[in-house]
Amino acid sequence: MDEHAAARTRIERAAEKLQEVLGELEAVRESIPPSPQELSDEDLPERPDVPTELRGVLATLVPDYLRPLIRALFTAARYRPDPSPEN
User: Fold this and answer.
1) What is the pTM of this model?
2) Which of 1, 3, 35, 68 could be a cystine partner for 51, CB 3.0 to 4.6 Å?
3) CA–CA distances in Å: residue 59 to residues 25, 32, 43
4) Alpha helices, DSSP H only, in the chain?
5) pLDDT in tens, 69-83
6) What does the alpha-carbon distance between residue 42 and residue 48 come to, in Å, rounded to a whole number?
7) Burial grade of 52 (CB within 10 A; 0-12, 13-18, 19 or more)
């Protein structure tokens, strides 16, 4: 039996929980209508309004950090080294 099976299972479960969080964050973003500031052709001000800031953070952090983290965790949980040749 794989001596690391318990760790692999825990990592996979954590990745599955993060997928749920990802879905929730995407739903939150979709529930916030774009503000007139966000829809404007003008550059955003240094301190955008709340809807623009929230949508922007979620639009950036989810694909840039959360999705790669989830993929990496699933990859790690399923990792199996190539069998080494016997000498």
Assistant:
1) 0.80
2) 35
3) 9, 12, 17
4) 5-31, 36-39, 50-61, 67-78
5) 999 999 999 998 887
6) 12
7) buried
Please tell me what DSSP assigns to residue 41: S
CB 54 within 8 A of CB 32: yes
Tokens standing for residue 71: 């993929």
Residue where the block lists tokens 């990496």: 72
- Report phi then psi at 34, rounded to 5: -60, 140
CA distances from 5 to 27, 53, 54, 55, 61 (A): 33, 41, 39, 39, 31
| pLDDT tens sequence across 13-55 | 999 999 999 999 999 999 999 998 888 888 877 889 999 999 9
16 vs 10: CA distance, rounded Å = 10
If you search the block for the tokens 């955003």, which residue do you land on? 44
